[in-house]
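From the shared-data thread, chain only:
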Amino acid sequence: MSVGSPMNAADRAGNSDALENLARVGLIAYGVVHLLIAWLALQLAWGIGGGGSADQSGALQTLADSTLGKPLLWIVAIGMIALAVWQLAEILRWRRGLSSSGEERKKAVSKTAKSVAKAVVYIALAVLAIRFATGSGGSSSGQQQQQTAGVFGWPGGRWWVGLAGLVVIGVGLYLIYKGVSKRFMKQLDLGSAPAGTRRLVEKVGLIGFPGKGIALGLVGGLLVYAAVTFDPAKASGLDGALREVLDAPFGRFLLTLVALGIAAFGVFCLIRAKYPERT
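Structure, as tokens:
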């Protein structure tokens, strides 16, 4: 077998029509999940609704409670798995660049790291969707606290929790930078799009990426705080982070702004499903 065979296989897998269509479904599902999180955050901000968790588990619980709950959850799970496979194909595509030098190696390392991180997120969301579809889903905030408490029991566990928090904060800062610099435009192929679509995408991305970045920064901040105070109860996930925002001065309005940012990110995902570009 030639050295290029795995690369060619990765290219064929990553560019197959079937995988691309499933990935589109995944992007739509990912967008809908963010829109539901934004809606739950707005309910939290203004004291309306059923008081569900304003995070991924709350969004999936909302789907589970709908008329077509289980089929929708399975669609979300399949879409997330397709997105994960899409990213794994990207990793194989960039594998050759890892053995290069200079800018090509730097770009390959960056692309590979991003693809691995995205694949992990998509797989985690797929698992969560499957759990809700099979009736075993629950609050992600409580689970995160239990997981954090378990990590505290490891050698140097407090440092691992703090490091994880710093990584999450770093991802949040990168998303803010990505939004302000409009680097998100590279994720779409707008060659066939109407003239006004590009302006719409820019506006949505400028709001959505910083909005999600701020939300992740808050989650990372709580992890760091949990490490500093040695209190796993502080690591309460996105729902807990948004509740901290609500308790701040002008919290209702700040939380509304964060919710609108998360909603804008969801809209971006829906647009990207129509005009995807991975390079």
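The chain has a mean pLDDT of 87.
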